[in-house]
Amino acid sequence: MLHKCRTYHINNNNNTDTAETSDQTYPVWMIWKKRRYVVAVMAFFGFFNAFALRVNLSIGIVAMTAKHQVILENGTTTYVKEFDWDSKVQGYVLSSFFYGYILTQVAGGWLAGKFGGKHVFGIGIAVTAALTIVSPFAAKQSYYLFMALRVIEGIFEGVTYPSIHAVWAEWAPPLERSRLAAIGFSGSYIGNVIAMPLSALLADKLGWESIFYIFGSVGLLWFVCWCTIVSNSPKQDSKISNSELKYIQDSLGEQQVSRIAKHPWKEIFTSLPVWAIIFTNFSENWGNYTLLTQLPTFMRDVLHFNLASTGIMSAIPYLVLAISTQCAGQIADWFLVKRIFNITQVRKICNSVAFLGQAVFMLLAVYVSSPYASVICLACAYALAGFIWAGFGVNHLDIAPQHASVLMGIGNTFGTVPGIVSPILTGHIVTTQSVKEWQIVFITSTCIYILGFIVYVIFASGELQPWAIHTESKDKNVIASEKHTD
Question: For the Major facilitator superfamily (MFS) profile domain, which residue ranges apply (predicted)?
Fold first, then answer.
């Protein structure tokens, strides 16, 4: 076990005198025979539901606040809004989810590290789904009640990203981290691809309420499947083959998760690589949440797409992103397996591609003259954004796998601030729906992307940090001492 850990750590430094292990029981394409890929696929559908539940309001609010024809008793035709919310109110409603989301990031990571990621991840999505089903009732009472419900949804969904890192820490061999994480995280983008046009279709054919009823029900169905199929760790999985179990355990070596791990808080908060991830997370989410919450409105008011077209056109960038995320994961792991670059270099290269690409194409999106050219620019920005999951998105697992869920929780806490601030700021800037106002919004995101790029290139690392090695060794000594006492 010690030999395997050293093998991986030397490989981190790009040394060619290393041995490699691999699971050759089944061909590469038979992923359903490999339990770690089954977990990744189930995580894919989990994030699919998480983001469908999150983003449906971006389309729903367009339908909820749109004018619709009403014929009065005297035969007069007029146009009214079911919810007469101005841009500022809409900004508060769209951002309310993140008020709760920011509260449970670190707690979700801690709970997942203590009890395992499976249950925390599943319950987070299940409760959000159940609350989504009652959202129409809350909205019709008052927007304050609706906002309160969205805050509670955010509280429960806030545990998802930190807790899934606890799953990867148990299931993902170091040389497969990028691709396994990419499979899971790309579900969030496919969730956007499906949710946006489907939400628009449902609102048009069945009424905006159907958006919340249908997506909430699908989320609950996924939860049942997740609890049935997925195990907390490979050694708890009754269907895993002996060869795959040995491969995962040997690959992780001393990086295998211990439930009694104590987190070195001082070392975490004084670590420059940790702060590089935190700031980069903040920078990425600023642009991402701006588009996530405002893209349908931008397409309706500036690009002049109707509701159905808005859902379809808003989904195109996310479809491209889902594909590019898979490609980025494969490319990153290929670089590592072939020893072309070490982990630090791979993370920085992938992150730079994502951030610089998004900065350039997001800016172009509001300066090109054609609506379709604008969509193409947004699609290009999202295509390059897929590389974040081979960059800072899995970097927590490189520098401190034992503490990855907590590190993700800390990073996502800071990363959720843009989800709160960006929609409100946009609501105050975009008051007349002019192109110039939207240019200010997108220029702000571009500048923040560039800052994130600079900080990550200077301070990030892919090396297992000394404080992580010390803590893991200490945990093992504690276990050995307890066994000796018994």
Answer: 38-464
